[in-house]
């Protein structure tokens, strides 16, 4: 059977299944139970809010399959058919089928307002002496793009790593890298935009999130990413989500703005 | 447990995964031998009900067999007196399901230990538990780590006299490695030696006398890292421990440094990828040898040290022999840590040998990896020429039987990925068969002469480890499910049996209550190499399982998952 033939047959089977069982009533979302600003079990994250918005348009109710977003997340959730959509992945994500992106954000520097550092470039010479925090990933040969970029510039000894997993017993474990700036553990942190924006907004010590240049280190080290939703390969849900994103982009923008997500695509931040 | 098993002192039991303190995996039983091996037949089977990778050798104590599964770490006691082997009791530790998301490379467990009427296991969620061997009642249960900080435990506990030795896993998760000693009777923590940090934490004191200059100095576990990086530096302890009763020393190796990439952690990164000799009672280090300073290839040094007395150049030496992940068989004087020889047992181009004067592993500039740089044909690949799967040594042939991989890897620039809400960038690693096109080998190695005597090629990596017997047979299993016996002298295949799933657990042998010899294989493919089957990974996604899937894409056609014990006899 050719692949086109096969997918037509699958679609037909899906359609028949739908007529037999009526429309599924639940939008099953694969979600991390403790990862603000993205999601948590109390549904306080912006991905929880966007899931509500999407489900409403689909005429469904949101249900969650909670799973810490670690190695094997897509395999154990979406691709194990425990849930049908991951609300945020980079649009280059290879483990699933991705929708059109609904926001673009980037890594930013977080500093204390009272320090007036105003570092706006990865090539600022002060980065050789300031104490810098970076998000650390922990897979072999992998890391957050600013961590790679600083190492490529020979900036190593003054860099501290904060694992993105954090200590999972604590609330919102990724926030520690932002708290470290407020507490003066480090002078400056390079943090993924949504995490930075949200915790900067919440901080009692006034902090600022500053975009930096470049947006990409050559040959290929991007600091800016398009974020989309993900469905299983071949799931017709993806096209419905595309249509909803197109229709509801303004409402999505408003939610992201409430959470302080820095936007790199002209969306208001 | 005997220090070293010979034909003479064989009691027909199998009390630890390693068989003896020396880690020989040699049995003195001779009923099954070269003359009758063709009559070996399956006599019973037992399903574990678990489908993850099964890496645990069963134990046999008296009339009982003990078998621990991968997560959820169910411990079965099987009554060998009953026809077909009835279940005597089942102990379920119910580990935290969240621990599955923390484990790096399948949710494996490498086996149980036995001492003083207790069966002792480790759970993936960081507990060490002792269970009454007769009744299955829990006697003590000690929590040693925290999955919320990325720690898991996968190694088999190792009992030395009145102490249980256990180490942690999770080097990729920002964990600080350690080995701990617990009181075998109460589970109380007696000492803990960290693999990184100040000497006081590493249990380095006045008795510490490393052989090489590169390992001498104060607080090297701090000074060989960028500031603070040692706190999350890895060096986990997830492999094998051996013990020399004569000197009262334990020997074990530590895992790779992490979680930073190599260019973000300049320095030797001590004491990752290091072989330690410690006083078994106090944990104090006597010597250490960093096998892989500043490791950049993920060559953990956790493989077993086999303790042997060898005659080298006419002189009798107390040595330990290690078939290392970096591709060399190290012969090391176990009294002082001096490397006597280091010869390749597979194809190696990532390093250019070991300088015996300085102890230094010699790097190869053109094979140095850096994220963003394309580097092709790095041999061995990250799992090394041999991973954790243990060797066997026969005192009758004087040969070390090494079951291992023949894999190389490419670093193909970078790919973007996503975790915990955060986009990141990593090297796109792809592994594939090394020279010859086969992915596995069995090498019979003469440690005194420092050379391979013969080799067997296998289609898949040989991830099972080996068993040697006084019947002059060597047993091992393949990832596509063949249990095999070969002639210990020549390597000629003498017997094989196709199991329902691939084999990645080291086989064992025992004398049953009826006086007959049995051989047991635990099938159940998985682990790093077999994750494509046990984790049902997509064969099109070559970089999955850290690039291993590219090398194992055809394993799904060759076998299916599921834990099953097979017992054979004449």
Write the layout of secondary structure elements.
The complex is a heterodimer of chains A (269) and B (570).
Chain A: H1 3-21, E1 26-31, E2 34-35, E3 39-40, H2 46-58, E4 61-66, H3 73-76, E5 85-90, E6 97-98, E7 103-112, E8 132-136, E9 142-143, H4 145-152, E10 159-163, H5 176-183, E11 188-192, H6 193-202, E12 207-211, E13 216-217, E14 221-222, E15 224-231, H7 237-258
Parallel strand pairs in A: 1-4, 1-5, 8-10, 8-11
Antiparallel strand pairs in A: 2-3, 5-15, 6-15, 7-11, 7-12, 7-15, 13-14
Helix pairs in contact in A: 2-7
Chain B: E1 26-27, E2 41-47, E3 59-61, E4 64-68, E5 75-79, E6 86-91, H1 99-102, E7 113-115, E8 118-122, E9 127-132, E10 138-143, E11 158-160, E12 163-167, E13 178-183, E14 189-194, H2 199-202, H3 220-223, E15 241-244, E16 249-253, E17 274-279, E18 285-290, E19 306-312, E20 315-323, E21 328-333, E22 339-344, E23 351-354, E24 361-363, E25 375-378, E26 392-394, E27 399-405, E28 407-419, E29 422-433, E30 440-446, E31 451-458, E32 467-469, E33 473-477, E34 482-487, E35 493-498, E36 508-511, E37 517-523, H4 527-534, H5 548-551, H6 555-558, E38 564-569
Parallel strand pairs in B: 1-32
Antiparallel strand pairs in B: 2-38, 3-4, 4-5, 5-6, 7-8, 8-9, 9-10, 11-12, 12-13, 13-14, 15-16, 16-17, 17-18, 19-20, 20-21, 21-22, 23-24, 25-28, 26-27, 27-30, 28-29, 30-31, 32-33, 33-34, 34-35, 36-37, 37-38
3D architecture notes:
The complex is a heterodimer of chains A (269) and B (570). Chain A contains 7 helices and 15 strands. Chain A has 269 residues and is α/β, with parallel strands linked by helices. In chain A, strands 1, 4, 5, 6, 7, 8, 10, 11, 12 and 15 form a 10-stranded mixed beta sheet that branches. A two-stranded antiparallel sheet of chain A has the order 2-3. In chain A, a hairpin with a 3-residue loop joins strand 2 (34-35) and strand 3. Residues 1-12 and 14-20 of chain A have low confidence and may be disordered. Chain A is globular, with a radius of gyration of 20 Å. Chain A has 2 domains: 3-103 and 226-258, 3-Layer(aba) Sandwich (D-Maltodextrin-Binding Protein, domain 2); 105-222, 3-Layer(aba) Sandwich (D-Maltodextrin-Binding Protein, domain 2), CATH 3.40.190.10. Chain B is mainly beta and 570 residues long. Helix content of chain B is 5%, strand content 38%. Chain B has 6 helices and 38 strands. In chain B, a hairpin with a 6-residue loop joins strand 23 and strand 24 (361-363). At the A-B interface, helix 3, strand 5, strand 9, helix 4 and strand 10 of A face helix 1, strand 28 and strand 29 of B.
């Amino acid at each position: 059977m050719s692949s086109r033939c096969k997918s037509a047959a699958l679609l037909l089977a899906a359609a028949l299944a739908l007529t037999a069982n009526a429309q599924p009533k639940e939008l099953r979302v694969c979600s991390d139970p403790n990862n603000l600003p993205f999601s948590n079990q109390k549904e306080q994250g912006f991905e929880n809010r966007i899931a509500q918005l999407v489900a409403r348009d689909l005429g469904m109710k949101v249900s969650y399959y909670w799973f810490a977003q670690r190695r094997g997340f897509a395999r154990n959730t979406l691709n194990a058919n425990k849930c049908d959509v991951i609300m945020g992945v980079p649009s280059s994500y290879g483990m699933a089928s991705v929708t059109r992106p609904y926001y673009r954000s980037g890594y930013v520097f977080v500093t204390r307002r009272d320090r007036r550092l105003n570092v706006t470039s990865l090539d600022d010479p002060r980065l050789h002496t300031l104490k810098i925090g970076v998000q650390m990933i922990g897979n072999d040969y992998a890391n957050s793009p600013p961590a790679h970029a600083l190492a490529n510039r020979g900036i190593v000894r003054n860099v501290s790593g904060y694992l993105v997993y954090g200590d999972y017993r604590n609330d919102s474990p990724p926030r520690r890298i932002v708290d470290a700036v407020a507490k003066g553990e480090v002078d400056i942190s390079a943090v993924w935009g949504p995490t930075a924006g949200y915790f900067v907004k919440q901080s009692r010590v006034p902090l600022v999130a500053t975009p930096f240049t470049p947006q990409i280190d050559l040959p290929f080290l991007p600091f800016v990413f398009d974020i989309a939703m993900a469905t299983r390969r071949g799931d017709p849900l993806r096209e419905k989500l595309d249509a909803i994103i197109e229709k509801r982009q303004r409402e999505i923008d408003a939610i992201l703005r409430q959470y302080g997500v820095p936007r790199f695509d002209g969306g208001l931040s | 447990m005997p220090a070293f098993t010979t034909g003479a002192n064989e009691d027909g039991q199998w009390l630890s995964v390693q068989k003896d303190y020396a880690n020989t995996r040699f049995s003195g039983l001779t009923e099954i031998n070269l003359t009758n091996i063709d009559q070996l037949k399956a006599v019973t089977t037992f399903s574990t009900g678990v489908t993850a990778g099964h890496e645990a050798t069963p134990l046999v104590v008296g009339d009982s067999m003990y078998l621990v599964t991968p997560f959820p770490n169910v411990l079965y006691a099987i009554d060998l007196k009953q026809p077909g082997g009835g279940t005597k009791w089942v102990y379920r530790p119910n580990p935290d399901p969240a621990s599955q998301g923390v484990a790096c490379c399948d949710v494996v467990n490498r086996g149980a230990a036995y001492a003083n009427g207790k069966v002792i296991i480790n759970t993936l969620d960081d507990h060490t538990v002792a269970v009454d061997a007769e009744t299955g009642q829990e006697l003590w249960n000690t929590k040693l780590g925290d999955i919320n900080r990325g720690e898991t435990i996968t190694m088999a506990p190792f009992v030395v006299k009145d102490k249980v030795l256990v180490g942690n896993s999770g080097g990729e998760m920002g964990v600080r490695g350690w080995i701990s000693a617990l009181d075998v009777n109460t589970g109380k923590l007696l000492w803990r030696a960290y693999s990184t940090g100040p000497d006081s934490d590493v249990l380095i004191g006045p008795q510490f006398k490393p052989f090489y200059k590169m390992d001498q100095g104060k607080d090297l576990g701090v000074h060989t890292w960028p500031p603070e990086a040692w706190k999350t530096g890895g060096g986990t302890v997830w492999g094998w421990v051996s013990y020399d009763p004569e000197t009262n020393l334990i020997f074990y190796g530590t895992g790779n440094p992490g979680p930073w990439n190599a260019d973000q952690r300049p320095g030797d990164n001590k004491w990752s990828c290091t072989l330690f000799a410690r006083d078994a009672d106090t944990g104090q280090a006597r010597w250490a040898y960093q096998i892989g300073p500043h490791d950049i290839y993920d060559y953990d040094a956790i493989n077993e040290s086999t303790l042997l007395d060898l005659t080298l150049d006419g002189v009798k030496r107390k040595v330990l022999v290690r078939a290392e992940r970096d591709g060399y068989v190290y012969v090391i004087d176990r009294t002082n840590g001096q490397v006597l020889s280091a010869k390749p047992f597979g194809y190696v181009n990532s390093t250019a040998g070991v300088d015996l004067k300085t102890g230094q592993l010699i790097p190869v500039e053109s094979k140095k990896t850096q994220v963003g740089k394309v580097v092709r044909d790095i041999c061995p690949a990250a799992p090394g020429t041999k991973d954790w799967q243990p060797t066997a040594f026969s005192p009758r042939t004087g040969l070390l039987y090494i079951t291992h991989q023949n894999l190389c890897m490419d670093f193909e620039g970078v790919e973007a990925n996503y975790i915990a809400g955060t986009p990141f960038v990593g090297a796109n690693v792809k592994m594939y068969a090394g020279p010859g096109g086969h992915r596995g080998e069995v090498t019979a190695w003469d440690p005194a002469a420092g050379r391979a005597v013969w080799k067997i090629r296998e289609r898949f990596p040989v991830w099972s480890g080996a068993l040697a017997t006084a019947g002059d047979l060597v047993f091992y299993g393949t990832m596509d499910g063949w249990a095999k016996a070969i002639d210990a002298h020549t390597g000629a295949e003498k017997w094989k049996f196709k199991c329902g799933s691939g084999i990645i657990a080291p086989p064992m042998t025992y004398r049953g209550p009826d006086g007959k010899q049995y051989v047991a294989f635990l099938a159940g493919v998985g682990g790093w190499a077999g994750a494509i089957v046990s984790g049902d990974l997509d064969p099109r996604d070559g970089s999955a399982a850290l690039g291993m899937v590219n090398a194992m894409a055809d394993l799904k056609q060759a076998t299916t998952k599921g834990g099953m014990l097979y017992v054979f006899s004449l």
